[in-house]
Backbone:
């Protein structure tokens, strides 16, 4: 007896139908399947934000609008979620820049980095999103794979197994990349000199 396709397979098929045939119904169904996960991603990112600032639903909607405007060919669920993470980061950076410009630094948007490595439930220090964006950009010049891993886990809530599959590496390699990235980012954000 054939088994029914998993939700991941369904999302991949819907993404292909939308991308290859322009099937808007497939796009809408795919968004229905992923919306709760996208909303959870946004809520995790904004957990420490002040109530008057961007709300998770608004972050998801703005990120999706930016994604739908582009003509990116989404390969599968992991690819879509990793691009959603990039768009959420972009939205947060844009809002932080606007707030900093409006208040000359007095209203910077703060996020927590503790989610970047769920297994090491340590500090919940607030990090300015602009500083985090600059640090992630700098980390990418040192170790792109580690930067992607921390961004996918931090901004999209991807599990270590999903990151390993997307990067074609083992889970222990992802764990090492995350430990390196977390230490590198912590030192960079504290003002330490890094090569």
Residues:
């Amino acid at each position: 007896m054939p088994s029914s396709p998993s939700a991941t397979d369904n999302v991949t098929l819907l993404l292909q139908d939308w991308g290859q045939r322009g099937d808007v119904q497939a796009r809408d169904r795919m968004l229905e399947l992923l919306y709760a996960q996208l909303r959870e991603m946004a809520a995790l990112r904004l957990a420490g934000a002040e109530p008057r600032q961007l709300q998770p639903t608004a972050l998801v909607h703005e990120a999706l609008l930016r994604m739908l405007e582009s003509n990116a060919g989404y390969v599968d669920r992991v690819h879509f979620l990793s691009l959603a993470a990039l768009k959420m980061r972009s939205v947060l950076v844009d809002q932080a820049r606007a707030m900093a410009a409006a208040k000359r630094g007095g209203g910077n948007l703060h996020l927590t980095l503790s989610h970047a490595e769920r297994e090491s439930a340590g500090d919940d220090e607030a990090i300015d999103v602009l500083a985090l964006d600059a640090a992630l950009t700098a980390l990418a010049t040192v170790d792109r794979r580690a930067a992607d891993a921390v961004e996918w886990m931090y901004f999209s809530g991807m599990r270590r197994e999903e990151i390993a599959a997307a990067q074609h590496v083992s889970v222990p390699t992802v764990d090492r990349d995350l430990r390196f990235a977390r230490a590198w980012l912590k030192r960079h954000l504290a003002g330490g000199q890094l090569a």
Remarks:
- Confidence is low (pLDDT under 50) at residues 114-126.
- The CA atoms of residues 74 and 80 lie 6 Å apart.
- The helical segments are 7-21, 24-45, 56-69, 77-103, 129-142, 144-156, 160-167, 171-189.
